[in-house]
Write a structure and sequence with these properties.
Immunoglobulin-like; 48% strand; 9-stranded antiparallel β-sheet; single chain; 7-stranded antiparallel β-sheet; mainly beta
């Protein structure tokens, strides 16, 4: 669900003395682009709740059909299961039955586990809305589905653990042992099916971390026997995001792959439709569109459809999203290990009759994840081995249909004519300015948008609109933290150059050969090369020292009395070169002193509240400006320093403001400010004063004054600072429907 368009009020700053106009917003890098940040919180809370977690047990009464007297224990090798005698079963009246619930809570989720019916995750309630993301059948009612030899299955809802055979396995209705552990990190509930030593056994660890809107699911499969075991293991989730406990026509499946294979379907617009019973991945169709029909959208389905990603899961995420409620569920998993990814729904225009599994017309879709790619494949666990991985399940609310997801965030990129809806759902609270979203044209890396996000959390996503002539298929999105780490991406393309810098150096070294070190970071593919430059003295020119190089340290050979400045940039594996930083001073500098000397080259001058700028800093007419000169001795000998600073015409010195942090008070002879004093090694003196404009000060013309500093080994050095007096006018600017 997208927020309605708003009337935007922007402010324009006009510098009448110059030509600059600044808008309270950003302009696109390409002329045809325009982007507008639109935070759309799912709730009205101003700040996320404090992290907490808790655990308790309770019971729930569910009307249950009386199937228990008709169960018969049978075996498939070492595996026992209950077979239902349908001739015995009386499907007339359900009877309320109490079931134990294990309840885990944090500030975003309430997750319940039902140990008596397969140790399943029964509910995943998103607390800000109160909606259960998982299907919850109001009755416990046998169906004719399940493994053929078992002949029945309970569509209870939630997330179940299916082993050792396909079609839900044998253990979805058996009691599982459990234990719970609480800590400051969160709550862990572990369920276990058996301690038997002659068969595959499973332990499922469910971790609800404090401060995060996700559930970590860690299956652990063990082979305690002395022989290799062939098996199937699938996680099956019955999903019904939103308030209705049933899918709507706005529900869509989200898969990373572009080809599927039919497991079973009654829709003859697809290959392999009933009465064909596929015995392998032979009936394939393109995803999401096949013959002009978008099969990712449930409203386009006729009959039932079950399908697998082919040849296996193409990405590390899948899920569903309901467009009517704006709510969805994401599953994040390691695709190289958990290779199976399957979807299922009962159909839409001509669905399977809901009386088969429930009594109230409620319904669900299924999302399966397995070790093997399909139900026709099996996995093998060698003797004595274990297999374990962690995947994450979480609700997504308010950010729009997601296009990619990780354990950190889900991203939305949805086409709407020449506008793109962008969204970020974070699984944890992130403060204002603590994450950044980028949009690029994928082939050229043209920057289309950059958003520094406000505070977001699982209940308060971020949304934006991007107006562009590029289709969504050509857009790459990247979501990063302040350290440049990639949190999530859509069609990832490494368009961000790496960052590099030379490490700090001592103020002086006493040998002509000294070590210089540097390093960098790249969020995507790693550093491929460095480029290091050096400058001899502040009046020297930057010159290449090492390029290209993978080294991160080298010896530099200098000369006595020379100050050397260093800077570095890096290239990543995608070919992107970063930029040199540090300005005129570079990243680091030092002076070679093989005998004692004073060094004043690190002295600086600043105006405008101590902020030195390369361009004139703007001031309002009539405002005085303060200057500070920091005369610093970075050498090994006391400097007898001399300062001469000549104010520009049009400015008047306010002589009472003349001061120095050490030595004599500065003097003014009507033309220049003078100061003289001794500065020991490693110390500095700050000389300060204030200049005031006059009626003759020209508005809009930079005024520069120059200070001459002497007394160091480098001879006389100059330090300058410029200011600009301008008129500011604030003009309201209205724009409707942007």
């Amino acid at each position: 669900m997208w927020a309605s368009r708003r009337q935007w009020i922007l402010t324009i700053t006009v510098l009448l003395a110059g030509t600059a106009i600044a808008l309270s917003g950003k302009a696109g890098a390409a002329p045809q682009q325009k982007w507008t940040a639109r935070p759309t919180p799912a709730t009205s809370q101003e700040a996320p709740p404090a992290p907490f977690s808790s655990f308790y047990t309770t019971t729930i009464a569910i009307p249950t059909y009386p199937y228990s007297p008709c169960l018969e224990l049978r075996a498939n090798g070492p595996y026992l299961y209950h077979w239902l005698d349908w001739d015995c079963y009386d499907a007339t009246t359900p009877i309320p039955q109490q079931y134990t619930l294990l309840v885990m809570e944090n500030e975003y989720l309430q997750v319940t586990v039902m140990p008596e019916l397969g140790g399943r995750v029964y509910q995943m309630i998103f607390r800000p809305t109160g909606h259960n993301m998982l299907y919850q059948n109001p009755v416990v009612k046998p169906t004719h589905w399940g493994p053929p030899e078992q002949g029945w299955w309970l569509a209870v809802g939630g997330i179940e653990w299916c082993l050792p055979v396909v079609e839900h396995g044998y253990e979805w209705g058996e009691p599982w042992a459990w234990q719970a552990i609480t800590s400051t990190r969160g709550v862990t509930v572990t369920v276990q099916d058996t301690w038997a030593a002659d068969r595959l056994r499973a332990t499922i660890e469910l971790f609800l971390p404090a401060g995060q809107g996700l559930l970590a699911v860690t299956p652990r499969l063990e082979n305690p026997t002395g022989s290799d075991l062939e098996y199937s293991f699938w996680i099956n989730a019955a999903l019904a995001p939103g308030p209705e406990n049933r899918p709507t026509e706005g529900l869509a499946f989200v898969f990373a792959g572009d080809e599927m294979t039919v497991h079973s379907t009654g829709d003859c617009r697809l290959p392999g439709c009933w009465p064909t019973i596929p015995s392998g991945p032979d009936y394939r169709f393109s995803w999401p569109v096949e013959n002009g029909i978008d099969f990712s959208r449930l409203r386009n389905w006729n009959e039932w459809l079950g399908f697998f990603e082919y040849p296996q899961a193409a990405g590390d995420f899948s899920g569903v999203h309901d467009g009517a409620s704006g709510e969805g569920v994401a599953r994040i998993f390691p695709a190289p290990l958990a290779r199976g990814d399957k979807g299922f729904a009962f159909g839409w225009s001509n669905p399977i009759d809901w009386h088969e599994w429930t009594d109230d017309g409620s319904g669900y879709v299924e999302l399966h994840g397995g070790v093997a790619p399909t139900f026709w494949d099996t996995a093998v666990l060698t003797a004595g081995a274990t297999l374990s991985w962690t995947e994450y399940w979480y609700p997504i609310v308010g950010a729009g249909p997601f296009s990619a997801a990780t354990a950190q965030a889900a991203l939305t990129l949805e086409q709407d004519n020449e506008q793109l809806h962008l969204g970020v759902h974070s699984t944890t609270a992130r403060g204002s300015n603590a994450s950044t979203l980028y949009a690029w044209e994928r082939t050229s890396c043209t920057l289309l948008g950059r958003w520094v996000l406000p505070a977001i959390d699982p209940a308060n996503p971020f949304s934006a609109l991007l107006s562009t002539a590029y289709p969504a298929e050509q857009i790459s999105l990247a979501y990063l933290d302040p350290a440049g780490n990639l949190l999530a991406a859509v069609r990832p393309r490494d368009c961000l150059p790496p960052v590099a810098q030379v490490d700090p150096l001592p103020e002086w070294v006493d040998t002509t050969a000294f070590s210089v070190t540097w390093g960098g970071r790249d969020s995507w593919e790693g550093i491929a090369a460095y480029h290091v430059q050096v400058r001899d003295g502040e009046e020297g020119q930057w010159a290449d020292w090492l390029t290209p190089t993978l080294d991160t340290a080298a010896l530099f050979y200098g000369a006595h009395g020379h100050s050397y400045f260093f800077r570095a940039r890096a290239q990543d594996a995608a070919g992107n070169w970063g930029t040199f930083g540090g300005g005129k001073w570079g990243d680091a500098f030092t002076t070679v002193l093989t005998e004692p000397a004073a060094v004043l080259i690190t002295s600086r001058k600043a105006a405008c509240d101590g902020v030195a700028e390369p361009a004139p800093c703007p001031l309002s007419p009539g405002r005085a400006v303060s200057y500070t000169l920091q005369i610093h001795n970075s050498g090994t000998w006391t400097a007898t320093a001399r300062l001469t600073d000549t104010p520009p015409g049009g400015l008047v010195l306010l002589t009472p403001t003349l001061s120095a942090s050490a030595g004599l008070t500065p003097t003014y002879d009507g033309e220049a400010i003078h100061w003289r004093g001794d500065i020991p090694p490693g110390l500095d003196v700050r000389v300060s004063y204030t200049l005031s404009p006059t009626t003759g000060t020209v508005i809009g013309r930079p005024l520069t004054n120059t200070a001459e500093i002497a007394g160091g080994i480098e001879g006389e050095i100059l330090r300058q600072e410029s200011v600009l007096w301008v008129n500011r006018v604030w003009v309201p600017f209205f724009c409707r429907g942007w």
